[in-house]
Amino acid sequence: MESIILVEERGRVTPKPLVHYIQHEFDVPADTTAVTMTLRYRKRQLCQLFISLFAPDGFRGCHMQPGAQGEIMLQLRVASDSASRGGIAGPITPGRWRAQIDIERTAEESDYLLTIAIEQGGPAAPAAEPFPEDYVANPAPGWYRGELHAHSWESDGKAPVADVVAAARHYGLDFLALTDHFTISGFGELGRLVGPGLALIRSCELTGHAGHANIHGLRRWHDIYVDGREDWDINALARDVRAAGGLFCVNHPFSNSLGWRYHEFDWNLADMIEVYHHLEGINNLYQIGLWDEQLRAGRRIVGVAGIDSHHPHEQRHRLGQVFTAIYADSLSEAGIIAGLRRGKVYLTRGPELLLHAEGPDGSAEIGEEIAAGPLTITAQVGPVHFPFRLFLFKNGLFHDLVEQFTATSEPLAIGFEDPAARAGDYFRAELHAIFPNEENPWKRQRDHQSMLAMTNPIFVI
Fold first, then answer.
1. Cα angle vertex 141, ends 328, 361, to 5°?
2. DSSP state of 314
3. pLDDT, tens digit, for every residue of 345-383?
4. CATH class for domain 353-460?
5. What's the pTM?
6. In terms of CATH architecture, what is 136-348?
7. Left, alpha or beta for 86 (phi > 0: left; psi -120 to 50: alpha)?
8. Tens of pLDDT along 178-201?
């Protein structure tokens, strides 16, 4: 098989002036069966670069190695019948291609060498197998628990897609969203792994220079390169995802340098926000505060949880340590996306936590509306294997508290009253463990360590 060097170009990245992306265009002739992009550079302290390829008919993949040091080589190969990790296999369309260097961040200057090689001759592209759009893993309506933030080695995860899906089944998840950074290269394998009992969600993580966001329920790749461009920005992407029937979720907004800093973002375009992120510790309290701020402003943004797993079996990244629970009409990709959109969702590290409101003119569950007036609000809790506190919040502020100093093996119904709920109010509940070694029982600890479960709101109209 013949290999031909098309591009061999040297350049330099520098923090001043900062350039978000470096583009190199090149022409691919007919009868080409593979394209390989290679970037070599030296990283002394902080210089993080990613690479991606674009054919005339669209995105063909991304490669990243965050955390690597020294002499770095990034390589992305796409061919008619195969691709390297992060790349999308398929016919090599002749015409003008584009190689992109994404300067995710740098505090130093670094010289680089970019090489583009092509191959001619070799096997023809096999017919692509479409993702089974209408597959239903379980037709029954009900509450389903799963993971909305997980990576494979198609981006910076440590395991292949098949192993991530197998782990989801092993840990008893009902659904799994594959949210690899930048790329949708795992979707083909995901489609081959569809089967009973587990809904697989096609997703991708926007990994921008000012924050991260998951986009869920995808049918195609969306342009997630939103930084420093005049023709495209974060709001345009969110509108594009929504127009295609997907959901836009702001991820770990207080994760320091990986937190949300798109100050121009229109929060009316957010469908969801990660309010409990398993790796974020105390930052979760600030994320809940941001969520309440948006809810008070009248935005019906759904709070979700995420492991942000990069290895499905290892330590804090292990799947099954926290769940987003969704009421769906069926266990399917479409059913889970529709359930998220409705907001009938709670987050849990184990126990069930449901919320029900009764008023003079009707009733409501999580994610639903109820008419203003005197309300009785009932939380269904349990079983809970720890002594616990149940907090009821109104408009993001403390409203009432029930303390249960013994564990319960049966569900409990716990009632609260509000004599004059007004239009615009909302109620949500949080379940927290009571630790045996609490120094002061009057402290009534509520933090990221004690959190057991949390509901989305019931809204008063």
1. 75
2. S
3. 999 999 999 999 999 999 999 999 999 999 999 999 989
4. mainly beta
5. 0.96
6. Alpha-Beta Barrel (3.20)
7. left
8. 999 999 999 999 999 999 999 999
